[in-house]
Specification:
Shape: globular
Number of helices: 14
Structural class: alpha/beta
Order of helices and strands: HHHHHEHHEHEHEHEEEHHEEHEEH
Strand content: 5-15%
Bound molecules: pyridoxal-5'-phosphate
Radius of gyration: 24 Å
CATH topology of one domain: Aspartate Aminotransferase, domain 2
Largest sheet: 7 strands, mixed
CATH class of one domain: Alpha Beta
Distance between the termini: 83 Å
Number of strands: 11
CATH superfamily of one domain: Type I PLP-dependent aspartate aminotransferase-like (Major domain)
Low-confidence stretches: none
CATH architecture of one domain: 3-Layer(aba) Sandwich
């Protein structure tokens, strides 16, 4: 067969398989180093500015050199988030299969905004959306959107909610905007996540429109108070934002009771289930989200508990008409299908061009299956429970929450001790967790969200806390 002659007009880096293979090696080396390396980054700001900075190169640099040098310079500034001993905020690792699919996503470089631009990416999203609905017990006919994370899932869902409640009083918000519209009341729990307020702000619904319903001692919205506020709303366009999984304690609002209250008053019920909605995937934990299926919209992440790499979240909506009305856009130069044609994701997402996020979620779900997701959720919860029990053997340590799922909240006798113990744990490099303020006092939060956290990771972490407490006690003597 005749050998193909290289097209001299094409830049020589056009098919860089050596670059990709070397990059895969660097990536694998890093993942394999996680057990040995400190979880915290070791480089200072100045060191990173010096190793990564410098002038914008005037002329091209060999891509292999760029990648080698980038990896070398960034490495001391990397936090070992994929490690089994990273417990900060609520952050999962990357399941290897999801990381692999995510690599392919970059290489394939599909734009799933509309079917014509990424047929496989679009169909994978269609399939994955149906799988997620089944797994999490959401209505089969609910519409969905793959977005960057729960923050943008809130924006998507609450835009649909805004459309829906205003349409019910004869106001077309997409046509008329909010200026002069009937006011929308939004009822939120006192322990809601800040991303709810920010989503509402993006939608022109400011703080003055929010009514904060107090929380009980377990961070749950007080439903009798919610009912009082709903009664006072007197049929005005109303949205309720409830929560499955409070960020510090993992507490769940009583979604069944709240769904009753919403149904009785015609309010839209939105659920922030960033991580907590995944309880629905576990037969042992499903009771925590009883009633969630009756909501009007749901926002959650796949980059947290499902352990898909950043960034990946999903919005679901029980009213496809309102969802689509809030999101859709058309232009003459686009190739959009119509009724009976495959779904164009642009009709459902706040993004125009975007990453084909469905591939990694699809790979994670296909690889784990329903049982694997349930096991992942239950295993991480079991680690959190055992850890909380073990903490009580450490002098002066008080666990503050009922460990329902994967979150543990604890503190020591005063703020200074709590912050110093946390600092010592992080500085030890053995584990990474983050602090918070609860009821005006400093506390430490530990979130077990990583697929690979093992018994030995938990034992090392407990030892790190124990050592930090001992050192702090000695320091105080
Ligand atoms: C309860 C809750 N809601 C919303 C969010 C925002 O999610 P994201 O950072 O994926 O946008 C978080 C993030 O931690 C969360 O814990």
């Amino acid at each position: 067969m005749e050998a193909r002659v290289r097209d001299q007009s094409r830049p020589s880096t056009a098919v860089p398989s050596d670059l990709l293979i070397r990059t895969a090696q660097i990536a694998a080396d890093w993942l394999q180093s996680l057990d040995r390396r400190p979880v915290a980054a070791s480089a200072t700001v100045d060191e990173l500015r010096s190793s990564l900075g410098g002038a914008l190169p005037r002329s091209p640099v060999d891509p292999l050199v760029v990648v080698e040098e980038l990896a070398r310079a960034a490495e001391p500034g990397l936090v070992a988030i994929p490690s089994g001993r990273y417990f900060g905020f609520v952050i999962g690792g990357g399941l290897p299969v999801a990381v692999a699919a995510d690599w392919l996503t970059s290489v394939w470089d599909q734009c799933p905004g509309f079917y014509a631009c990424g047929p496989a990416a679009s169909i994978v999203e269609e399939v994955t959306g149906a799988w997620l609905a089944q797994l999490l017990g959401l209505p089969e006919r609910a519409s969905f959107a793959f977005v960057t994370g729960c923050q943008m899932a809130h924006v998507t869902c609450l835009a649909a909610a805004r459309h829906h409640v205003l349409q019910a009083v004869g106001w077309d918000v997409e046509e008329l905007g909010l200026s002069g519209s009937p006011p929308i009341r939004v009822l939120v729990g006192a322990r809601r996540h800040v991303s709810v307020d920010r989503a509402l702000r993006f939608l022109g619904i400011g703080r003055a429109s929010l009514t904060v319903v107090p929380a009980d001692g377990s961070a749950r919205m007080q439903v009798p108070r919610l009912r009082e506020e709903l009664a006072a709303a007197g049929g005005a366009p109303t949205i309720i934002c409830a929560q499955a999984g409070e960020v510090n304690t993992g507490a769940f609002d009583d979604l069944d009771e709240i769904a009753d209250a919403a149904a009785e008053t015609g309010a839209w019920l939105h659920i922030d289930g960033a991580f907590g909605l995944w309880a629905a995937a576990s037969p042992a934990l499903r009771h925590l989200v009883k009633g969630a299926e009756r909501a009007d919209s749901w926002a959650f992440d796949t980059h947290k508990w499902l352990n898909v790499p950043y960034d990946s979240g999903v919005a679901f909506c029980a009213h496809p008409g309102s969802h689509r009305a809030a999101m859709t856009a058309t232009a003459d130069y686009l190739v959009q299908g119509g009724p009976g044609q495959p779904r164009d994701a642009m009709d459902w997402t706040p993004a125009f061009s975007r990453r084909a996020r469905g591939f990694a979620v699809y790979a994670a779900l296909r690889s784990l299956g329903q049982q694997g997701v349930a096991e992942l959720v239950e295993r991480t919860c079991a680690h959190a429970r055992t850890f909380a029990e073990s903490l009580t053997s450490i002098p002066g340590c008080h666990v503050l929450n009922d460990v329902l799922i994967n979150q543990v909240l604890f503190w020591f006798k005063d703020d200074q001790t709590t912050d110093r113990v946390l600092r010592r744990v992080v500085d030890s490099g053995e584990a990474w967790m983050s602090g918070t303020t609860v009821d005006g006092r400093r506390a430490i939060r530990l979130s077990v969200s990583n697929w690979q956290t093992s018994d030995s990771d938990m034992a090392r972490t407990l030892e790190a806390v124990r050592n930090a407490v001992t050192c702090q006690a000695r320091h105080n003597e």
